[in-house]
Amino acid sequence: MERNINSLTGYSLKASNGEIGDVKEFYFDDETWKIEYLVIKTGGWLSGREVLIAPHAVKKVDWLNRFFKVSLTKKQVENSPDIDIHKPVYRQHEIELYDHYAWEGYWLSGFYPGGYLGVSIPFPSIEGKGTMPPSSDEKGSKDDLHLRSTKKVTGYHVHAKDGDIGHIHDFVVDDQTWQLLYLVIDTHNWLGGKKVIIAVADILKVDWDNSKVYVDLTISAVKKSKLFKETVFNPWETEREIKVTLPVIPMEIL
């Protein structure tokens, strides 16, 4: 099913022996636009440290109660490499993390270990982009920086072929493959402030240095794009609101 990223932010992450923390944001590969890590803000048990968890560690999702269940222990997370996510995450950091958890690196084969169902899927590539890891002498170089934060990319300005169309408000992801499929664009006032959905496949290029995204669409085409409705991508929220607002009927009345 397709879900919007903003609705997943704040989900709890539970280990096999207790709660780890809450989802703060997601990191995606800027070549494949696939989610590679959940960024978790741990609680007091780990002094609020932020850790990276790969999506294929997620074995169960409770959409109604908003939590991910992972096949890890709290001790494993506590002993994981202390990666400062406020600084660039290089491939070497990822290798250390994957070695610790005994995960197979997603960059080592043509298959990515899928979502919480554990289904292996073909590793996607965006036309004109390679998927080979950098050579050993490139580790730590600028070319080795390929992870982007959904939180930081939110707000990027989006340009059609013939003008500015707004900024990124959200993303839509496939909850089985963790592939980002669409950008949710806030059109400001020129389209009545409506939010529209644009396919990642329509991206021509991204100017990461200047926070700009260029798409292969005209403003006219954007006007005809599908409107974003959060209830479509997060139906559980409506059900949860209904449960919360239903009045409690005293037993003696029943």
Automatic annotation (TrEMBL):
Pfam families: PRC. One of its GO terms (biological process) is photosynthesis, light reaction. Signal peptide: none annotated. Residues 17-62, 162-217 form the PRC-barrel domain. InterPro entries: Bac_photo_RC_H_C, PRC-brl_dom, PRC_barrel-like_sf. One of its GO terms (cellular component) is plasma membrane light-harvesting complex. It comes from the Bacteria. This is PRC-barrel domain protein. It comes from Mucilaginibacter paludis DSM 18603.
